[in-house]
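In response to the reviewer comment on reproducibility (Comment 2.3), we provide here a single inverse folding case reported in full, input and output, so that an independent group could reproduce the run without further information from us. The structure tokens appear first.
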């Protein structure tokens, strides 16, 4: 594989999905704690992240696993409520010191820390004040970004402001399946706006407190294809692309929301000064791309404003999430990002798959489908590199089987198996594949 010897090979996780220790050492309540504990249960099997992978206590063991894999970098997120239990104001020394220890241990293992500020675990105290719908959320985020980057700014190699702000805005405020569980498109656009403004402000703070670090953002991006060549299906694809991809990409890289989408969404757009979003267009060192699958859509008279339906592809292979396996989409997406936005660099900040892995047998977990998925997507990255896309690293999602949000622990994305009762770790066959991949790519 023609990956440069400087290419960073990593793995990714997020705080709520792995840490556990939800009520320990002064951590405040997050919106996900509240969501998981609200009846009737909204999470498969009524599960929660209370203990998760118990990474809070086992981080040393996890870093030893990473070192055995030969990882160059580790992407994790910081739990805002561990740092500021009420969201603003009082700092929690024990929470800060946990991330100090984590970062130091990573550095000692020769692994570059990549930290995401916000991977969805908003302090509940801030949700009680309106969450991302409150314009003050921009200042709250700035205060948090300042506190954590003052503490870790001398040691973290890469920072991401948000992980997948589209999910926070639209899945949380429009599709209602994540906190705060709203079904209100106007609210979703308002949340998206504040997330974008908060990103702009946080980047400036990270630059000040961590002048040597790389700064970026991680977006969930998915190329959209029309189901047929009919003009109406092309229009549907353009709209879905506008909704899913361009609603964040255009403000971040061009300082304005996409015109076609502003026109389409006009009746739902909140009374906001949309031009203020130009503050989100600050120079970034990298764009983080989280890629899992593609979208295929057709025009459908039905529901406004998008008027489209998703078209499943007959006989297409899918993961345990029901997501089509379509590696070509990653190449298409990366080339398109280069052509339309020319980011300084790209990291694949998430890519991976859930499969119904068999249970461990004699200490081995056979997961050939995951190996095939990773191989195919790494060759898709290789194809993009060959076309001049500046991809500088790849973070597999995920290091560990973990709490997959509303799916609880049923969906396993890890290259390392986590026993649901003992939480013991067993690297799967895909972990060996990844270790060999890293070793051979780094050898030349
Ligand atoms: O587990 C999630 C992660 O938190 C964000 N990106 C997608 C992953 C798989 O659904």
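Designed residues, in position order:
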């Amino acid at each position: 594989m023609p990956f440069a010897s400087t290419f960073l090979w990593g793995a990714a996780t997020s705080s709520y999905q792995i840490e556990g220790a939800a009520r320990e050492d002064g951590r405040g309540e997050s919106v996900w704690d509240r969501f998981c504990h609200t009846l009737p249960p909204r999470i498969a099997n009524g599960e929660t992240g209370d203990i998760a992978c118990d990474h809070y206590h086992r981080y040393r063991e996890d870093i030893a696993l990473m070192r055995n894999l030969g990882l160059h970098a580790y992407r994790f997120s910081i739990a805002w409520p561990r740092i500021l239990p009420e969201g603003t104001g009082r700092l929690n020394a024990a929470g800060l010191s946990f991330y100090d220890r984590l970062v130091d241990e990573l550095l000692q293992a020769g692994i570059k820390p990549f930290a995401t500020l916000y991977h969805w675990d908003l302090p509940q105290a801030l949700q009680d004040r309106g969450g991302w719908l409150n314009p003050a959320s921009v200042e709250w985020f700035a205060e948090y970004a300042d506190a954590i980057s003052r503490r870790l700014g001398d040691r973290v190699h890469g920072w991401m402001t948000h992980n997948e702000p589209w999910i926070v805005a639209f899945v949380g405020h429009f599709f209602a399946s994540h906190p705060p569980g709203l079904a209100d498109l106007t609210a979703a656009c308002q949340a998206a706006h504040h997330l974008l403004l908060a990103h702009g402000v946080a980047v400036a703070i990270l630059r000040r407190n961590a002048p040597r670090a790389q700064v970026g953002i991680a977006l969930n991006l998915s190329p959209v294809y029309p189901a047929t060549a009919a003009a109406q299906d092309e229009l549907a694809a353009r709209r879905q692309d506008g909704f899913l991809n361009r609603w964040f990409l255009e403000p971040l890289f061009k300082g304005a929301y996409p015109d076609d989408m502003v026109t389409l969404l006009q009746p739902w757009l909140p009374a906001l000064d949309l031009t203020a979003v130009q503050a989100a267009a600050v120079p970034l060192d990298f764009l983080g791309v989280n890629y899992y699958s593609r979208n295929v859509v057709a025009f459908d008279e039905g529901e406004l404003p998008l008027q489209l339906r998703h078209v499943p592809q007959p006989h297409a292979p899918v993961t345990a999430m029901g997501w089509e396996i379509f590696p070509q989409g990653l190449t298409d997406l990366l080339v398109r990002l280069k052509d339309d936005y020319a980011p300084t660099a790209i990291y694949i900040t998430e890519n991976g798959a859930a499969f119904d892995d068999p249970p461990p047998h004699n200490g081995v977990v056979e997961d050939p489908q995951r190996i095939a998925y990773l191989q195919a997507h790494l060759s898709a990255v290789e194809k993009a590199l060959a076309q001049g896309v500046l991809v500088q690293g790849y973070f597999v999602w995920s290091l560990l089987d973990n709490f997959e949000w509303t799916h609880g622990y049923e969906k396993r994305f890890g290259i390392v198996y986590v026993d649901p009762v003992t939480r013991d770790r067993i690297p799967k066959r895909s972990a060996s594949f990844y270790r060999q991949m890293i070793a051979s790519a780094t050898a030349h």
